[in-house]
């Protein structure tokens, strides 16, 4: 897309010749520079370096940028070579002077020169110009090389360099397009003609372009971000504003912009739909899409997904992608990183609240790293090395897993953050924005893959119906529910639940429910979990497809170890529930029974191998023990308990 605004701050590859060209003072075009050297500073401070425009592109004195962004710039006179070192601080030279001042007050001769230049010891070949004896380089070309962020505001003509933010290429939705959309959002339709006349030339690259050319350019954009025009509808920004401009400038009703409905899969990561479960995963996204575009975000809690999972760093079936997110950490790097942080992880695990854990991780990252670089977090610790935002998110991701906080990475065009499950809800942790947690809605339009994020909040929620982590690393990602302890559900809640899901439930079942609580209390086992397990094993006491029958007083399949086996029987419902509680205690801990043992299989259990509900499933238990062999057995119990607690 031809845009003059790109020319205002991008450094294009030019043919190096010895011929001289004219460099014009950039200040004459009204351009200014602001510099941010802190992740918390989104505005920056005004700077006054020497800036020239050459052939429509903006060039800065290399030493000025070194001083402003604090990176090393040295000159080897013997080799006639310039050395740039992003990991060292700038060392002043005599010619710098006490203050920085723009000396480009008049046109000057510029010679494109193949100046020998090295970045961290490796030779590079950026486009450079020699002006009055100093090297000048394009800001974006330098940003790409040493990894810092650049933005441009068309209205104010302000260039901003962010030392602590990673470099991001411009997309077809440009800085000018963003400025246009931001203006239109806050303006009345009466202001659209003036806005269109200002933006049409810069967006199209044609000085005589009118609003029609602007609309045409808007419609030509292929990957504009999503825009939420209301709580219930999403549109592609370019189509939405094109239709609104046409309506305002032709005094007609706005066209019905296609709603971003039923096609949220297009926002998903490529890797997310490139796996053996692709068809089922796409079905999941359709369900999530309908909820995402629903009347209010709370409707998302009613949506579940059925199959498929992302095999990239977004969902982390293992920590491999997290370790290697920034370019290939070795096993040695991993072991070294784990060893370095071992004492911190021990302190982290000892904290008792999620809030304390999140604060600890934030302070730890702040102590060990700084943003704006490209080093991997597995190598940058201890030296406060500059690492990328994505790598910082990867470091936080690993730390959250160590803390037992469910988490995954989300991304925008230029950065990454963590979505974490704390205090019973999902929140956003973005290290570059400080220690405060933020809502998912705040990041909804920033996220390049909101459908993926929303689906994963369902996939990775503790107790969710979809629980597809198949390895022992499961204990890294979920907050576990102990079998030992006091119940959360009351007898009335359990009775209300079973009446709702099984209107024909026998009265004898209703009457025996208090035994789950009394027998559980006697052994220190959660009786509400035992009842949820009985609902699972008996099909909510319909005994459909169950190996046991109501008259056996065996409500958990005790003794049914293969098909067609009838299992154990007990004289009364209370004794059957007591046996179930005792069997759960055998798995939960190594404490002796308080009542006489009536569980016929108590002695066959390796004591204490499943202290949590999740570990009752053999497939999820890291030791390979458990109550049942079916996948997600413990999570299915927790799903039932979650529903019971709503009554």
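^ Assign residues to that structure.
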């Amino acid at each position: 897309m031809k845009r003059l605004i790109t020319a205002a701050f991008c450094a294009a590859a030019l043919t190096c010749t010895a011929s001289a060209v004219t460099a014009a003072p950039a200040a004459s075009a009204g351009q200014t520079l602001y510099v941010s050297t802190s992740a918390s500073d989104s505005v920056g401070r005004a700077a006054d370096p020497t800036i020239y425009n050459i052939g429509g592109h903006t060039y800065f004195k290399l030493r000025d940028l070194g001083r402003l962004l604090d990176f090393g710039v040295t000159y080897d006179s013997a080799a006639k070579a310039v050395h740039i070192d992003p990991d060292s601080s700038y060392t002043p030279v005599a010619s710098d002077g006490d203050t920085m001042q723009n000396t480009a007050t008049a046109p000057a001769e510029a010679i494109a020169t193949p100046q020998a230049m090295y970045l961290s010891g490796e030779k590079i070949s950026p486009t450079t110009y020699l002006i009055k004896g100093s090297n000048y380089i394009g800001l974006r070309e330098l940003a790409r090389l040493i990894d810092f962020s650049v933005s441009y505001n068309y209205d104010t003509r302000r260039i901003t360099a962010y030392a602590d933010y990673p470099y991001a290429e411009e997309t077809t939705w440009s800085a000018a397009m963003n400025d246009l959309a931001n203006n239109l959002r806050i303006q009345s339709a009466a202001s659209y003609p003036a806005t269109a006349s200002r933006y049409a030339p810069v967006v199209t690259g044609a000085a005589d372009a009118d609003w029609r050319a602007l609309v045409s350019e808007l419609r030509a954009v292929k990957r504009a971000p999503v825009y939420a025009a209301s709580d219930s509808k999403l549109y592609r920004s370019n189509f939405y504003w094109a239709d609104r401009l046409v309506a305002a400038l032709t005094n007609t009703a706005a066209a019905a912009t296609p709603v971003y409905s039923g096609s949220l899969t297009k926002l998903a990561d490529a890797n997310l739909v490139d796996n053996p479960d692709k068809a089922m995963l796409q079905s999941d996204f359709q369900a999530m899409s309908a909820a995402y575009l629903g009347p209010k975000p709370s409707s998302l809690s009613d949506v579940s997904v059925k199959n498929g999972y992302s095999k990239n760093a977004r969902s982390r079936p293992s920590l491999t992608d997290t370790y290697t997110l920034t370019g290939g950490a070795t096993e040695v790097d991993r072991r070294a990183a784990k060893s370095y942080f071992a004492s911190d992880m021990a302190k982290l695990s000892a904290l008792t609240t999620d809030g304390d854990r999140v604060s600890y991780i934030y302070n730890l990252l702040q102590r060990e790293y700084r943003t704006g670089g490209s080093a991997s977090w597995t190598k940058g610790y201890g030296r406060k090395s500059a690492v990328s935002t994505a790598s910082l998110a990867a470091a936080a991701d690993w730390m959250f897993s160590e803390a037992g906080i469910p988490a995954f990475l989300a991304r925008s065009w230029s950065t990454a953050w963590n979505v974490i499950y704390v205090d019973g809800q999902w929140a956003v942790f973005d290290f570059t924005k400080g220690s405060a947690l933020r809502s998912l809605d705040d990041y909804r339009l920033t996220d390049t893959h909101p459908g993926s994020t929303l689906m994963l909040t369902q996939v990775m929620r503790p107790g969710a119906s979809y629980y597809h982590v198949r390895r022992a690393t499961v204990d890294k990602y979920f907050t576990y529910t102990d079998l030992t302890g006091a119940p959360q559900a009351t007898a009335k809640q359990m009775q209300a639940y079973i009446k709702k899901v099984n209107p024909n439930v026998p009265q004898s079942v209703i009457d025996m429910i208090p035994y789950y609580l009394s027998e559980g209390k006697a052994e220190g086992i959660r009786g509400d979990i035992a009842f949820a397990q009985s609902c699972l094993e008996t099909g909510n006491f319909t005994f459909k497809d169950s190996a046991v029958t109501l008259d056996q007083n065996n409500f958990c399949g005790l003794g049914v170890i293969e098909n067609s086996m009838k299992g154990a029987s007990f004289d009364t419902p209370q004794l059957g529930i007591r046996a179930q509680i005792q069997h759960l205690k055998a798995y939960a801990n190594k404490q002796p029974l308080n009542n006489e043992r009536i569980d016929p299989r108590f002695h066959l259990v390796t004591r204490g191998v499943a202290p949590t509900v999740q570990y009752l499933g053999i497939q999820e238990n890291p030791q390979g023990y458990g109550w049942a062999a079916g996948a997600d057995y413990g999570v299915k119990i927790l799903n039932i308990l979650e529903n019971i607690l709503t009554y």
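Residues 40 and 264 are 32 Å apart (CA to CA).
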